[in-house]
Amino acid sequence: MDESTMYNNTQSSILSLSGQASSGVSLLEQEVLDEYERLSKNMKELSSTLADLSSGPITLEIAEGLRLLERKVASVYTLMKASVYSIVLQQGQMEGGEQGDDGTGEADDDGRR
């Protein structure tokens, strides 16, 4: 099964489900199906664009654009990891503070409140 057949099958099955909004599909489920439909269209467009790019010669302009895109993606990935680490660290500190606090305001044996 090639990619275009797979995308067409996915899209047709999503469309057949999304047409049944009045017969047992909730509003949230319908919104999820709509998002999957948009994602399917975007993936199909991306696949087509990548196929066009890969079939032709790679020019200096394309290579430079891809390098720039790679750097931007790497930067976003690093920032996302740092944000997640920060959130996990804050939650760990909050949980650690709650466990060490007995509500009396007095310090424990090791000097913590």
Automatic annotation (TrEMBL):
Start and end residues of each stretch annotated as Disordered: 92-113
Location(s), subcellular: Chromosome, Centromere, Kinetochore; Cytoplasm, Cytoskeleton, Spindle; Nucleus
Entry keyword annotation includes Protein transport: no
Coiled coil: 29-56
Biased composition (Acidic residues): 98-113
Family according to the record: Belongs to the DASH complex DAD3 family.
Keyword set, alphabetical order: Cell cycle, Cell division, Centromere, Chromosome, Chromosome partition, Coiled coil, Cytoplasm, Cytoskeleton, Kinetochore, Microtubule, Mitosis, Nucleus
Pfam families reported in the protein's UniProt record: DASH_Dad3 (PF08656)
Organism encoding this protein: Cladophialophora chaetospira
Protein name listed in UniProt: DASH complex subunit DAD3
One GO BP: cell division
